[in-house]
Structure formats: C-alpha cells, structure tokens
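name: query_chain
kind: protein
chains: 1
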Amino acid sequence: MQAAEALVAERSARWILAHLPAGARVLDVGCGPGAVAARLAAAGHPVVGLDVDPQAVEAAKARGIDARLEDIREHAGGNYDAIVFAWSLHHVRDLEGALDAAWARLRPGGRLLVLEMAFDEVDEKTKAWARTVEALLLHAGAVEETGCIFFAYEGGRPHGHHAEAPHPHETHDFHPSRRIWAALEARFRPLESERCPILHVFLARALGDRSSVLEDVIALETHAVEHGAIVPVGRLWVFERT
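structure:
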C-alpha cells in the first residue's frame, strides 16, 4: 500500500478506534487488504476480517490479520463487541441480509460502526469543485489520469476507468445513503451521525506516495465544506444493538 492510501486508512482507523472500548472484539466486513484492520489490531483489538475478494484476503493475511474469504451471511463467528463497515456497505448486494447477519453476530449492546458515502446527495457545485481540483492535479503532474474523484460514480454506477476496474463481484447499483440509513435504523439504535469530507479518498490510489499532496487536498476539501462551498459527502454513523 502506498503512502496516500495509507493516510486514508489511518484516518478511518482513528475514527473507529475512538468508538471502541479497550480490547473490543471486532469484525471488519469488507476489510480489503487489511490496512484498517491492522491498525485496530495494533491498538490491542482482536480483529477478524471478511472480504469476497481472494487477493484482498491474501493481502490482509500478509499483514497478520485473521482474514477470511467469506460473506458476512456465511460467517460462523459471533458475539462481537463491534462490527465495522468501512466504506463497504454500499457495495453489498443483499443489504438487508447483510445487516440481519450483522445483528445476529453482534452482542447486545455492541456497536455497529459505519463509514459511508452519500453519492445520492452530491450537488452540481460539489461536482464542479471536484473536477477543478482534479484538473489542477493533472496539470501539475500529481496524477496521471482523470476521473479519479467520486463523480465517476454518478448515477450509482462506475464510469470512466472505474467501470473498467469495478469493485470485486460488483453486479448492482450502489445503495443510496438514505436507503442504507433506513435499513440500519430498522435494526439498530442510532447513537451518532456525522457528515465529513470524503472526496479525497478517491484520489488516494492515483496519488501513490504523494501523501503530502493528499493532505493538501484534505485541507482544501475541509475548508470548502466548512464554508459551504461544497457538501460533505462522507457519513460516519454509530449504531447499537439493543
């Protein structure tokens, strides 16, 4: 994993860790190559990672994670203190089935931590801002391709180079954030809901080891959100199983 992607993983893990009790047993659903899970494990949390991509599972295992090639509906474990969906729930084909499985595998009082993206709530000024930032990075030689910010996913489906390399086993439109929230709220008690800047995530891979450039983009995006120039696309949700 290159430096820019590592920065994204670090920021995600930092938020998750702030919502975990000491020593919490964690199930990371859609763990990918295990970058977030490894940071949780390093902080003293027993972690099991699930993913449906064999290459991602092998990469996570190489980080020392107990990673398994499984859908959460197939997972035999249970009684977890926390279940994490970090930028993965919109990919899940059977949203309701996955959340039913999460409920069954979470102990009473356990936390469901969800990091998501509201593709369905993006307005034109936010798209224009993203295109401008991307064009500047391309002109400066910081990235070598265009279409790497989220608006490549307009309409709930990948476009541009994202369509050529979609998420593994992606066969459906992304779930709108409102639908995800409704499905979560029907099963769990909401505790926290926060909006945050997230467009920079889609530049991480293209930026490679240029993490300092990504930090600058994060600062620009945060400033734009705080001053109402663009909408915050990220969602940070904490739920509890009652």
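note: The chain has one domain: 3-240.
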